[in-house]
Write a structure and sequence with these properties.
Elements lengths: L23 H5 L2 H4 L3 H17 L5 H21 L10 H13 L12 H37 L4 E6 L2 E7 H6 L2 H17 L2 E2 L15 H8 L3 E2 L3 H6 L2 H27 L7 E2 L18 H25 L12 H24 L2 E2 L1 H7 L6 H10 L4 H18 L8 H7 L13 H6 L9 H15 L2
Parallel strand pairs: 3-4
Antiparallel strand pairs: 1-2, 5-6
GO molecular function, one term: argininosuccinate lyase activity
EC number: 4.3.2.1
Subcellular location: Cytoplasm
């Protein structure tokens, strides 16, 4: 096949004399990256052919020939992929060349009034909508896996941590549900990115708009967009919707990393609250006893590239003058990598969570009596003691128990009264883990009733 500068291979070579410099050729090529947009490119081209027909630029026969040719191109690419060794500059030139092979001379009319600038912007927006649908399903699967884990932990009380120090008793279900709500916010951010991508740039041309009477509103409806762009200069260079997607992707990564960190900690011998299944654990080449939580560690590690992709795109965009600039060729690899990474990580983490199991015996063994300290402070508040006074008194009680080397439940009523006279015989009724958790029955709390309400709300939000 001939190279750039020759009519059969280039979409722009007429103004140039001679071929492209050898050192420029590989820099100029993008098919290895944007080739995955072939479905979107064909979809946009079908819509554009119909729009040209409605505008009277093409005859019905020409539109039919182009649509049939595009169907044939789609069949070729679906069955065989992009052929090895092709020298087309990008996916747009490849599709046009294949269309010419299938439909003949009429294929050369398809690009009337259209630029690769508004073409690629349209392709990307179509791709974002598809990608968001895939990500939404994968996030939903992880959310449902967390629900399944939460259901196992409804009657398991575990330490709740702040600063990685035991704070108050909570139900294990409450811990398992905590990541569900960030994931639901992630789904909302993804939907916002898809909505931002739902504005059609096609018809903006290279910079100044289209000189033919294209009904852009009809074209938008045909391609599934809800509106058209208002300014052709902005339309061809707007990548805000990609920034929205990559921001959502980076934050998803952060949320997944936090889930992963919990799994690493809680599956360790020091905690042993959770056991990951063998299918999502690995061993050591040296130490036979090891069960490594690699699924969590790999998930945690992938977050760096997700954050990096967002930073890369924002850096790419920050210095561009108004209008299309070739720098934007770099946007696709960042977006593709973010989605590919998430679609690699999400199913693996969902599988790990779905097959994980709580270890109630190990959890109960780790419950420290000092977790009841806040309950003791609340006990005094219920008897009219100001909270700050109560807080100070319980601090002294904790110190007394530590000095004696006993648990809070092992101190006598006289010990408690020596610190504050408001303690009565019923103080020892506090020392029950379920009772402690159930005392926090407000919406969003860790009482069993509140957690059941939360489970129901999460099921509704996740659709089952």
């Amino acid at each position: 096949m001939s190279r750039e500068g020759e009519e059969t291979a280039s979409l722009w070579g007429g103004r140039f004399e001679g071929g492209m410099a050898p050192a420029m050729v590989p820099l100029n090529l993008s098919l290895d990256v944007d080739g995955r947009l072939w479905r979107q490119d064909i979809a946009g081209s079908r819509g554009w052919a119909r729009a040209l027909g409605r505008a009277g630029v093409l005859t019905e026969a020409e539109v039919s020939a182009l649509l049939a040719g595009l169907d044939a191109v789609a069949t070729r690419l679906e069955s065989g992929g992009i052929p090895a060794g092709v020298e087309d500059e990008d996916i747009h030139s490849l599709v046009e060349r294949l269309l010419t092979e299938e439909a003949g001379e009429v294929a050369l009319k398809l690009h009337t009034g259209r630029s690769r600038n508004d073409q690629v912007a349209t392709d990307l927006r179509l791709w974002v909508r598809d990608a968001v649908s895939d990500l939404d399903r994968a996030i939903t699967d992880l959310g449902r896996a967390l629900l399944h884990l939460a259901e196992q932990g409804l009657d398991v009380v575990m330490p709740g941590y702040t600063h990685l120090q035991q704070g108050q008793p909570i139900r294990a279900a409450h811990w398992a549900l905590a990541p569900v709500w960030p994931l639901l916010r992630d789904r909302a951010r993804l939907r916002a990115a898809a909505e931002a991508a739902g504005v059609l740039p096609l018809g903006s041309g290279a910079v100044a708009g289209c000189p033919f009477p294209i009904d852009r509103d009809a074209l938008a409806a045909d391609l599934g967009f809800y509106a058209v762009t208002e300014n052709s200069l902005d339309a061809i260079s707007d990548r805000d919707f990609l920034a929205d997607l990559l921001y959502a992707g980076a934050l998803i990564g952060v949320h997944l990393s936090r889930v992963a960190e919990d799994l690493v900690l809680f599956s360790s011998a020091e905690f042993a609250f959770v056991r990951l299944s063998d299918g999502f654990s690995t061993g050591s080449s040296l130490m036979p006893q090891k069960r490594n939580p690699d699924v969590a560690e790999l998930t945690r590690g992938k977050t760096g590239r997700l954050v990096g992709n967002l930073t890369g795109l924002l850096t790419l965009l920050k210095g561009l003058p108004t209008g299309y600039n070739r720098d934007l060729q770099e946007d696709k690899s960042l977006a593709f990598d973010t989605v590919d990474t998430l679609m690699l990580v999400l199913p693996a983490l969902a599988g790990a969570v779905a097959t994980a199991r709580f270890r109630p015996d190990r959890i109960r063994a780790r419950l420290d009596s000092q977790l009841w300290a806040t309950d003791l402070a609340d006990y005094l508040v219920h008897r009219g003691v100001p909270f700050r006074r109560s807080h100070e008194a319980i601090g002294r009680i904790v110190r007394l128990a530590e000095e004696r080397g006993v648990g809070l439940q092992q101190l006598s009523v006289d010990d408690y009264r020596s610190i504050h006279p408001s303690f009565e015989e019923d103080v020892h009724d506090l020392f029950d883990w379920d009772r402690s958790a159930d005392s926090r029955a407000v919406p969003g709390g860790t009482a069993r009733s509140a957690v059941e309400t939360q489970l129901a709300a999460a099921r509704r939000a996740l659709g089952g």
